[in-house]
Amino acid sequence: MYVERLLQIHVAAMAAVATLLLGMGQQSMALPLMVFVAAAVSVWLTDITGTIALNRLVANLAALGAGLLTLHDLGQLPPHVRILGLANLLVYLQVILLFQKKDARRYRLLAMLSLLQVVVSAVFNQGLWFGILLTCYLFLGLSTLLLIHLYGEVERFHAVRKVAAATANGRPQRRWPLAASPVVFSGATGGRHGVGWELFGRVGGMGISTLGVAAIIFIAVPRLGDNAWRGPQLEARRVVGYTDTITLGELGQIIESPQEVLRIRFLDAENDEPYRVTLPEVYLHGTLVNDYRAGTWRYSLQGHRHRFRPLTSGPGPPEHRLVRQRITIEPLERLEVFCVWPFYPTNGQHSLRFDAQRPRLLRQMSERAQRLTFELYTTAFRNGIQTILQPADTEPDLDPLLQFPGTEGPEGLPTVARLAEEWLAESQIPPEDLLGRLRHLEFRLRDSEAFQYSLDGPPRDPSIDPLEDFLTNNPRGHCEYFSTALTMMLRSQGIPAQMVIGFRTDEWNEPGRFFQVRQLHAHTWVEAYVAPEFIPKELWTDSPLDWSRGAWMRLEATPGGLDAEAAGIGPKLAVERFLDALGRFWSNYVLEMDEARQREDVYEPAGEWMSARVSDLADPEWWQATMAQLRQALDVRRWNVNQWFSWRGGLAAMAVCLVLVIAYRTLRLVIRAALRQYRARVAAARARQAIRVAFYRRFENLVGKTGLIRGPAETQEEFAAAAGRHLAERAEKPELAAIPSVVASAFYQVRFGHTPLDKTQQTAVREALDELESALSTGKRP
Q1: Which residue of 56, 207, 302, 378 is 20 to 30 Å from 190, comparing CA positions?
Q2: Residue 437: how many CB atoms within 10 A of its CB?
Q3: Does residue 87 contact residue 22 with C-beta atoms inside 8 Å?
Q4: d(CA 428, CA 293)
Q5: What averages of pLDDT result for each successive group of 10 residues across the chain (782 residues)?
Q6: What gap in Å lies between CA 155 and CA 1, rounded to an integer?
Q7: How many CA atoms lie within 13 A of 64 on its CB side?
Q8: Cα 562 from chain centroid?
């Protein structure tokens, strides 16, 4: 009874967890709650007390009704989600089975139905919690399968005992002398031995081993497809903050998504070696907005230039200080692609287009729903740092960048103009030092601590402009508030400025050597135009870039940099941060592990590491440095007790011991497996060798019946010649003289040439021996 009770609880738990996974995919908790209640009630009323037990007729009628209900629902569902209707049918059948009297067959059927639900749920849900619950389901399923096996064995022996008890006088049958004895587990006095903590310990070991082997196979086995599985249909992702209009306050409410947007690598254009960015902030340009009215940014199209042109028709890259940026961007609903500006096309063919009227880089419409990889040159880096001043590639149209609503009227910005004038007057920076004045306004917004960064901005006063409310009443907001404030302050002082929408990231992936950009890295900043006369003289002389058309200066007004809150991570609790990091790992290295990502994150880093280690082993200087470190470590006089006896040292020692134990056991298993395989091959070779020369032993046996035996020093060929003459004389058939030579030639081919006989040769040898045997059995004796 103990085994069966555990099995009943396990099966009910499997049904509940499987339906919960299905409900997560359907984004509905109605079915999971129903199954939770049904599983708990069935264990008590059906399995323990036996109050409710559906007979076969009632169960069949209920299953028929569930099937009809499912057919009705299927007609109302879209074609691509009709599989959910079939999954609901599995739930209904599972509930019906829970309220039936169970045997081994029904337990197996319940386990199978729950497994089918998990398979269906994986089509519509692959989030982090799905992975966590799926791991729990793995352990629960292994335990349930073991209990089903144990229950089947117990049930089988109970059936044998019933048959034995039915014999005459209640005596057990002689064929089964132990059939009438009570069923116990080995070494126990009751039926619980091995089914308690011992069972769960073994299941835990099996589950951990299964997860480890599955992880190794998942990481190591090459992917065959180009795209990762993202659900029943591949759709372009929505990029937060990228619309034709941006209203202050909207971006901060939707920016916390950790979904990946792109990856970017930087390579030295001369040797294609990784280019290391020393300042861990990278700005990726997306699009621009230049027209601000009543809290909303738009882009005002100006001029009559030809709007779109292929990227390859633009200006070529300069001949100096080039960095190659290799970008892999995910499917996005917007056409914009993001990169470090300024950019120049590489030698490869590009399908990208440049929007010259609204400066931005676009992909083709057909490329929105697929992952796109492209390369561009840039001159934005110097000594590993993305510079804040970049030369303008064309003569800018400054009129839209100077629009300011003034200080009067309902759309006026009096506080913006007043604060800009006060701050510049307090700085006493002369107008000739334009860069200093720009940096001072940036500093007052970002570092004065008078304004605070917040994802959830406070309610704004609807009677005034939200920017005015931000500067006067509630100085808390997201990055678009700070960028808007700085842009309008600059314009109020006659300095052309525009707001840039893009991404700012500091998430560096060391194994893959790339920057990772997520939705939560969406950001806005300011670009101010600097006329040629305000550009520092040292840039004209030290930099070979063309500064004759002026430059764009990047200004960062948002306080806090890329701290935890500003980056959108938000929660301060350690558990939530851990789950956030785990969710990123699950998304990047499980769900998105396609062929390209596996090559970038697994194969290439592993190959580089192996290449580096091989280079070290061949480098005499590395051996000298290693031996010097070893001698220093073995020098007792240099030992630091606090360094060796600490919790870090203990963890390191435990890790080393664990690695050594695992290596020893793995090596032992490999050696044993190799020895077993070698012995099996030797035995098989001997067996094949024995089979290969069987025809020659038959020949010697036939000849031996005539009294002719091969001598120890006589070769098979010499014996065949003598035997041929002897047999021809004995049977008075000259044609028998050639048969021994045929057999000897075949023997030499198999035994010493290690070449098996083909079908024609085997037939010839067999017919020759049959002819010889027939001639000897009917032949005339001399």
Answers
A1: 207
A2: 22
A3: yes
A4: 31
A5: 83 91 80 90 90 88 86 69 78 90 90 89 77 90 89 74 56 51 48 63 87 88 66 50 66 61 90 85 91 86 64 67 89 87 81 84 84 89 91 87 84 90 93 93 90 77 87 88 94 94 87 82 92 88 84 91 41 60 74 76 84 87 85 64 56 80 88 86 65 75 82 82 82 80 83 78 85 73 39
A6: 11
A7: 6
A8: 26
